[in-house]
């Protein structure tokens, strides 16, 4: 099934994370080698990911931007190899804010653009998604990764993030992107305090009510470590799984996770309950 058609189906999906970076917050440096990255991508697919999100730039708080050429150097061989090796029902996504990187990834087989800037970083991004008729994730972020945790402030975080995403979805449509190509993402951890993240997670239904498929990225993130007093991201798998179960009940469509096997269990059980 084509990814665009699959996104219209009711059952939620898992997007497995493949960071080809030296500095990602929880798996930086593990998949810099092409062979290791491809093996990890195949493992994520085997465990139940229907999308593999390949990224060559960390967006952790404080991260410096990575030039297009370097992102392409990191991700392209991995995407080329994965597009040969992945089963037909697993798609590749490119996690970048630069259209030149997305374009190279699409030519190598990527079928989804994951743009954490929601088309603001590069004016060419919407045009690229429109001309290739590919789905695009529009994510909310206050500031940039370098500055976003400096002093984020909201009056009403849910209303503000929702208004931002609706405005970006409108801008995308004005640039020629079809409504069904658009996914929205509240951007957990991107310029948000702990309580902002919790508010967003408590009101996911309001994002779902827009009618756009909602993508959620909580995997191993710090707000859960703060609640639990756990500093090591890899110790936050069970916490992540709890958010996935709640997200399924709220109607979230795609879960972006590092730990596919555990989140697949949560998704299947919560989905069965939702349909009971
Ligand atoms: N989170 C991260 C990266 N990309 N994309 C979307 N759409 N939503 C998210 O929540 C999201 C994202 C950060 O996580 P990770 O990739 O694990 O770390 P890093 O940015 O350090 O590579």
Could you characterize the architecture of this molecule?
It is a single chain. With 276 residues, the chain is of the alpha/beta class. It has one domain (13-274): Dihydropteroate synthase-like (TIM Barrel, Alpha-Beta Barrel), CATH 3.20.20.20. Helix content is 45%, strand content 13%. The protein contains 11 helices and 8 strands. It has an 8-stranded parallel β-sheet. Helix 3 (68-85) links the parallel strand 2 (51-55) and strand 3 (91-95). The longest helix is centred in the N-terminal third of the chain and has 18 residues, at 68-85. The two termini are 26 Å apart. The model has no long low-confidence stretch (mean pLDDT 96). The structure holds 6-hydroxymethylpterin-diphosphate (HH2). The site of 6-hydroxymethylpterin-diphosphate has 21 residues, from strand 1 and strand 5.
Number of domains: 1
| Order of adjacent strands in the largest pleated sheet | 6-5-4-3-2-1-8-7
The number of helices is 11
General form: globular
The CATH homologous superfamily corresponds to: Dihydropteroate synthase-like
Keywords:
single chain; 276 residues; alpha/beta; TIM Barrel; 8-stranded parallel beta sheet; 8 strands; globular; binds 6-hydroxymethylpterin-diphosphate
Task: Describe the protein's topology.
Layout: H1 3-8, E1 13-19, H2 34-46, E2 51-55, H3 68-85, E3 91-95, H4 99-107, E4 112-115, H5 124-132, E5 136-139, H6 157-174, E6 182-185, H7 194-202, H8 204-208, E7 215-216, H9 222-228, H10 237-250, E8 254-257, H11 260-274
Parallel strand pairs: 1-2, 1-8, 2-3, 3-4, 4-5, 5-6, 7-8
Helix pairs in contact: 2-3, 3-4, 7-9, 10-11
Bound molecules: 6-hydroxymethylpterin-diphosphate.
